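As the next step, I selected for study one protein, both as residues and as discrete backbone shape codes, as given directly below:
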Amino acid sequence: MAFLDDLKKEAEAQKQQEMLQTQSKLVAVSQNFLLVQKRYKEIHRYLLELVNQLNVLNLDLKRAYYLEGAGMIDNFRTRDYALSIDSIRIGQKDFANTLVLRFKCVTDKSITVERNVPTQIDNLKEYLWQNNLKYQCTEYKNDRGLVSRAIFNISGEIPITVRFSADFENAKIFIQTKNFGGLTVNEYIYAAEEVSSELLDELAKYLIDKPNKFRDMGRHQESMRELTRQARMAKDVNYPHAAAAAEEEEEEEDKSGGFFDRLKSILS
């Protein structure tokens, strides 16, 4: 019986330890959640003021976008800044889940693209859908009743979003930009304590094309740059002649005037 009593005590001690660990984790998660909510409130106040100011100033910010089939389209101008918040209900209280800053880049230019292959027609539709670009498509069928040609009239309005979301459990905040600086999606990760007025100031400068260090801020971005640097160093070590060969090729092109100049001399 003494042995069984010892096992019982050991089991009870283990249960107690597990309960304490669970409680400790719940406390930590709760603290992280509240920290993110605090940062969300600061972000919301800042972005609300930024939206109001930008809509009043109506800055003449020009952008260019490459659109598949249409090439590079310039003279897009930003306008119509707006802020929305998506909430989650816990118990009887609402908490912020995501914040989204939205605005548009608009051009008066007519954008028309024609496709004459069914697969290309479908691919262009998918491309426009993925990038949230509105369009009108006029389809033409062949003698067999199949779509063989399509003309796309693409809206000269590109929606841009800056989305704030969070990993509440680990107190991380994600900033995702879509269609800003191209039809791309970029994500930046920060510990909640890294989200400060300085970071938000740099983000605001980034959005209105002022000199900034937004993309360099945060431990995650710093670690990614370090990984990139190490990868480049490893490549130089494993392929020591590659960099030198590239430099020699560049020098040779410079001396000869570059590819197009050499081509011109050959054809003339």
Observations:
- The CA atoms of residues 160 and 179 lie 5 Å apart.
- The longest strand covers residues 71-90.
